[in-house]
Amino acid sequence: SRDRTLPLVEEIDQRHFGIIDSKVRRLMSIPKGNSALRRVMEETYYHHIYHTVAIEGSTLTLSEIRHIIETRYAVPGKSLQEQNEAIGVDAAMKYINTTLLSRTGAMTVSDILEIHRRVLGYVDPVEGGRLRTSQVFVGHHIPPHPQDLQRHMQELVQWLNSDEALQLHPVEYAALAHYK
């Protein structure tokens, strides 16, 4: 039963969070100008874009994504929509890294819509940065009706900025934010 397994799951989570925290401390102790660190950070950046678009069904390889982002030239034989999705994720990540991470203050619905605007900016610039106005279906999941989106977004932002959420481990916070 859940009551029996929950303490074990929480113990395992805490053990994994400890391992992650230890690795983060080791990573943060490396001087920022270290060339190996810069290479790893750059490689991680491209992997993040690759996995973000791959989970949505993109067939682009890691090397193709690197080529698209670095050169802004299209890869022959690949869908322009897929390539534009990768460019949009790159734009959103740059926005997050240069604007949101260095800013103090609470996350807002506008912040989320700015990220959305950049993600969709090269694929669907009219809809990017706006709450949808029509009902969509994702597999067997039925997302909220468009008229309920503003309320759901406000609830999400309220949770993101809550003391309860901000006290979570960053990995748990990210997982729950994604789930919500």
Give a verbal description of the structure.
The structure is a single chain. With 180 residues, this protein is mainly α. The chain contains eight helices and no strands. Helix 2 packs across helix 4. The longest helix has 27 residues, at 2-28. The radius of gyration is 19 Å and the shape is globular.
Strand tally is 0
The coarse overall form would be globular
N-to-C CA distance: 24 Å
Helix content: 55-70%
What's the tally of helices? 8
Uncertain runs with pLDDT below 50, 5 residues or more? none
- Give the C-alpha Rg: 19 Å
Mean pLDDT: 96
Secondary structural class: mainly alpha
Looking at how many chains there are and whether they match, the oligomeric state comes to: single chain
The biggest beta sheet, please? none
What is the strand content?
under 5%
Order of helices and strands: HHHHHHHH
Keywords:
mainly alpha; Fido
Secondary structure elements and their pairing?
Layout: H1 2-28, H2 35-54, H3 62-71, H4 80-100, H5 109-120, H6 149-160, H7 163-166, H8 170-179
Helix pairs in contact: 2-4, 4-5
Give a brief rundown of this model.
The protein has 180 residues and is mainly α.
